[in-house]
Design a protein that fits this description.
The protein is an all-alpha fold. The protein has helices spanning 4-20, 25-40, 51-63, 71-82, 93-103. α1 (4-20) packs antiparallel against α2, α3 packs across α4 and α4 (71-82) packs across α5 (93-103).
Length: 109
């Protein structure tokens, strides 16, 4: 499952690598086309960030004190949570820690 926010963040990450000189411009363009093609081909379930996702993200932001959760990360977690995802794939340690914390079902309602 993927949202437009996640797609934009992926493109941001590859663009940063291009600016830093660790990824060639041609590779950056190729990756962007591949991401777009995979989305277009239905490889991922595309989900929108509806108002209920924002409200759930806000609840997570208010409830998780022991992990410095950012707004975008809270939106990713809320979308996954409300969609019934059983796992989240991330290289972001803070996001992973927040996912574990939220997945523990110990958050106040």
């Amino acid at each position: 499952m993927v949202s437009d926010l996640a797609i934009t963040e992926m493109v941001s990450a590859i663009s940063r690598r291009r600016r830093e000189g660790t990824l060639a411009a041609v590779s950056c363009a190729r990756l962007h086309r591949k991401i777009s093609a995979d989305i277009g081909d239905g490889l991922y379930i595309k989900s929108d960030l509806m108002p209920e996702v924002h409200r759930e993200a806000e609840r997570f932001l208010l409830a998780v004190d022991d992990v410095p959760l950012r707004a975008a990360d809270a939106l990713h977690l809320a979308l996954a949570s409300l969609s019934g995802a059983s796992a989240i794939v991330t290289y972001d340690l803070r996001l992973a820690q927040a996912a574990v914390r939220i997945g523990s079902n110990s958050l106040p309602q």
